[in-house]
Amino acid sequence: MSATPLPPQPAPPRPRGFTLGHRIPPPSGEYRWVYLWDAPLRAMHWLAAIAIVALAVTGFYIGKPYFITGGAESADPFVMGWMRFIHFASAAVLVMTAIVRGYWLLAGNKFERFAALFPVRPRDWVNMWKQAKFYMLMERHPPAYLGHNPMQQLSYTGIYLVAAVMVVTGFALYGQSNPGGLINRGFAWVPALAGGIQMVRFIHHVLTWVLIIFIPMHIYLAMRADTLERTGVISSIITGGRFVDAKEKFIDAEDA
After folding, report:
1. What is the DSSP letter of 71?
2. C-alpha angle 197/199/202, rounded to 5°?
3. Which residues contact 15 (CB under 8 A, 6 or more apart)?
4. Using an 8 Å Cβ cutoff, are 14 and 177 in contact?
5. What is the pLDDT of residue 210?
6. H helices within 2-149, ranges in order?
7. Which of 69, 117, 180, 189 is the most exposed place for a label (fewest CB within 10 A)?
8. Cα separations (Å) of 187 from 59, 92, 93, 175, 183?
9. Sequence-ordered list of residues with C-beta below 8 angstroms from that of 204, at least 6 positions apart, any chain
10. pLDDT for position 5
11. What average pLDDT does range 1-8 have in this prediction?
12. pLDDT at res. 167
């Protein structure tokens, strides 16, 4: 005797609110292209990223070599020299990108200028809390920004300040190789202000870890935004723009 087949069961209802693990529906509707980042800004972003990675790798080696080569059997006994050269060259690239980015705070489009990068408007401080609740899974929808949202504005402002201190302390340390030289005299105020050259080295080392921690967080949040918010931020830093819902209203769309 064969068993009677069970009737088809209805699909379980989709849970309300923000949940993890459910399938994200494919995009639909009408979209428009919005240009956000000019070519010089995109180039500086990737050059700075490469420079920071190179600075971290070589900086740790200069501070405490994690592999040693030398002697007659070594093919290249000048490893420390190469590490120092790469470190100083990468620092020069990072300074160059900072100069271009500083200029673009004044000459860029409305998504690249000062007001779009720093949370200076009262509305941005209000939306910053809403964005934080979205990151903490307490909100389903974040505030809609075409450019940087307030949390990004604050974090990037902090990273720029960290990079500035890294450059200043780095030049102070570099000046130690030529006591009485131009760089040594020009940055002599740094160890005097910090409380000695060892404190300068300590600050430089600690801020390196700040950048190392920031990098995976930055990548994760960018991938998260592309997946959950469908913002296209990863492709925008390559192509310069992204597609957005033609009917959606954005908070920063009308900014001057």
Report:
1. S
2. 115
3. 22
4. no
5. 94
6. 39-63, 79-107, 114-117, 122-135
7. 180
8. 20, 16, 19, 7, 6
9. 59, 166, 169, 170, 173
10. 52
11. 51
12. 93
Per-residue model confidence as pLDDT tens digits over 172-185: 999 988 888 899 99
**Euclidean distance between CA atoms 166 and 139, whole angstroms:** 36
Tell me which residue has tokens 């100069």.
99
Distances (CA, A) of 198 to 57, 164, 182, 202, 206: 20, 19, 20, 6, 12
Taking the C-alpha atoms of residue 256 and residue 244, their distance in angstroms, rounded to an integer, is: 20
Residues 158/218, Cβ–Cβ less than 8 Å:
no
- The count of residues in the chain is 256
> In Å, how far are 97, 140, 166, 206 from 191, measured between CA atoms?
25, 48, 13, 16
Cα–Cα distance measured from residue 216 to residue 224, given in angstroms and rounded to the nearest whole number: 12
Query: pLDDT per residue over 43-96, tens digit each?
Result: 999 999 999 999 999 999 988 887 665 555 555 668 888 999 999 999 999 999
In the CATH hierarchy, which fold is given to the domain comprising 41-68+82-113+152-241? Fumarate Reductase Cytochrome B subunit (1.20.950)
